[in-house]
Amino acid sequence: MDAFRFENLDIWKEGIELSDTLFDIADTAESKKLFRFAEQLRAAGLSMSNNIAEGSGSYSKKEFNQFLNIARRSTFENANMVIIYQMKQLISAEQKEHLLSELDELCRMLSGFARSLRSSLSALSSML
């Protein structure tokens, strides 16, 4: 069977790795009976890779771009949650900095990929 299109995307690979890390951190919160914190982190973590995967199934680049925007916004949500987790001493300052760096990198990758989709759309429309 052929792979799903998203499995070949570096942005998806980065997103799924980050999601896995965030799940591990959510397990720590859950062990301290902070169930809502854990649930929110898991949902936001999954949103990044899920929206990349879902968008890759779009028939249009414009629609795919919308899903990339949602994935990008989820990186911001996760960054906010990572800061709160560190404030509540659920993760170390070093973990926070590392995660923020990885989230920033994914955000940049998403922005660049979305920009390339938009430029190919505008190049196509100018030809028409």
Structure, explained:
The chain is built from 4 helices and no strands. It has 128 residues and is an all-alpha fold. Helix 2 runs antiparallel to helix 3. It is elongated, with a radius of gyration of 16 Å. The chain has a single domain, classed as de novo design (two linked rop proteins) (Up-down Bundle). The mean pLDDT is 92. It starts with 9 loop residues before the first helix and ends with a helix.
Keyphrases for this structure?
de novo design (two linked rop proteins); 4 helices; mainly alpha; single chain; 128 residues; 0% strand
CATH-defined architecture: Up-down Bundle
The chain-level mean pLDDT equals 92
Rounded Rg: 16 Å
- Output the structural class: mainly alpha
- Low-confidence segments: none
- Residue share in helix: over 70%
CATH topology annotation: de novo design (two linked rop proteins)
Biggest beta-sheet profile = none
What separation lies between the terminal Cα atoms? 36 Å
Number of strands: 0
Instruction: Write out the CATH superfamily name.
Output: 23S rRNA-intervening sequence
Tell the overall outline: elongated
- Series of secondary-structure elements, N-terminal to C-terminal: HHHH
Count up the helices: 4
CATH class: Mainly Alpha
Q: Which strand-content bin applies to the residues? A: under 5%
Whole-number tally of structural domains: 1
List the helices and strands and how they pair.
Blueprint: H1 10-31, H2 35-56, H3 61-87, H4 93-127
Question: What is the structure about, briefly put?
Answer:
This protein has helices at 10-31, 35-56, 61-87, 93-127. By secondary structure, it is an all-alpha fold.
